[in-house]
């Protein structure tokens, strides 16, 4: 991949991968090795977290489309010559600083709105108490400024580039 053409985002916008992909199978040992390396890299490259999580779902029986998605992450890294500062970092901020983050695939499908409402209700009351005790301050964030989107879905290039700076991955 040393001579690859760089790309501006780690995941193609609108990409749909599937475990039932009937495409050409690839060497699963090589695929797992690549994905493990990419996952290790997320310690300092929060901007590739979503794409890594996506390809890591297919380590058992990878196909050429999964391989190409993993290689795209390498092409993105190749094109990025900026600072690679470590970032700890849901995206929660203290002031303008990211202090913790998380991105994970949900373990179960919610079968009823009642199940979801019980979880929301519990979190709502917990957060309300924290606000009342002045332990946290909640701040409204417009949809287009949702920095956590970089952790959960592929974004258009301009949105992706905009979201890296607040995370501390890139300098202004």
TrEMBL record:
Matching CDD domains: RNase_HI_RT_Ty1 (cd09272)
Protein name: Uncharacterized protein
Species whose genome carries this gene: Linum trigynum
Lineage start: Eukaryota, Viridiplantae, Streptophyta, Embryophyta, Tracheophyta
């Amino acid at each position: 991949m040393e001579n690859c053409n760089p790309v501006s985002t780690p995941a193609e916008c609108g990409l749909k991968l599937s475990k039932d992909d009937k495409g050409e199978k690839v060497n699963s040992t090589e695929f797992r090795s690549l994905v493990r390396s990419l996952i290790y890299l997320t310690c300092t490259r929060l901007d590739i977290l979503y794409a890594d999580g996506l390809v890591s779902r297919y380590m058992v029986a990878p196909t050429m489309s999964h391989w190409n998605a993993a290689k795209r992450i390498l092409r993105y890294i190749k094109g990025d010559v900026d600072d690679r500062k470590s970032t700890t970092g849901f995206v929660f901020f203290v002031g303008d600083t990211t202090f913790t983050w998380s991105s994970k695939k949900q373990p179960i499908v919610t079968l009823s709105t009642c199940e979801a409402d019980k979880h929301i209700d519990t979190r709502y009351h917990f957060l309300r108490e924290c606000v009342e005790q002045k332990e946290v301050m909640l701040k409204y964030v417009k949809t287009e400024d949702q920095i956590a989107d970089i952790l959960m879905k592929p974004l258009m290039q301009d949105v992706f580039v905009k979201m890296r700076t607040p995370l501390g991955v890139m300098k202004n």
